[in-house]
Amino acid sequence: MIVRNINDIEGSEHDVVTDNWASRRILLKKDGMGFSLHETILFPGKETYIWYKNHLEAVLCVEGEGEVETIADGKIHKITPGVVYALDQHDKHYLRAKTKMRMICVFNPPLTGREVHDEEGVYPLMDEPSAA
Ligand code: 9YT
Q1: Whose CA is nearest to atom 11 of ligand 1?
Q2: Can you give the pTM of this predicted structure?
Q3: Is the Cα dihedral 65, 21, 87, 96 positive or negative?
Q4: How far apart are CA 87 and CA 129, in angstroms?
Q5: Which residues, listed in sequence order, are joined to residue 127 by a DSSP beta bridge?
Q6: Mutate which of 16, 19, 20, 23 for ligand 1 pocket (most atoms within 8 A of beta carbon)
Q7: Residues with CB under 6 A from ligand 1
Q8: Are the C-beta atoms of residues 35 and 130 closer than 8 Å to each other?
Q9: CATH numbers and ranges of domains, the chain
Q10: Segment 83-115, tens digit of pLDDT
């Protein structure tokens, strides 16, 4: 069994910080679960363009307030604690944090740990054998 405390991840190599967000990567590809699990803090007032071309992501908001705009249809979805959105269509979107937001995120396939968005808003598929 794997038991981890998110407090031990803060400030480690699995705490990835950009101008718009910080992502604590709790479970990763090498853990062999078939998904990765992250806590993401979105910084207030920031907009991020995202396109997970290579991944599926589900996101549960547990704190804060913001919105997601799906670019294909221009729809704006209000995001508050308890709301989940799942990018089942690899949806291109804007993520906007009105306040500081805390999100629990799951990625399939799992991230290896250091991924950040490229200029297309994409995470690359990184090659690393999983533990399983
Ligand atoms: C909600 C979202 O996709 N934010 C960007 C960071 C991502 N969740 C990550 O790498 O943990």
Answers
A1: 23
A2: 0.90
A3: positive
A4: 25
A5: none
A6: 23
A7: 21, 23, 38, 40, 50, 57, 59, 95, 103, 105
A8: no
A9: 14-108 (2.60.120.10)
A10: 999 999 999 999 999 999 999 999 999 998 877
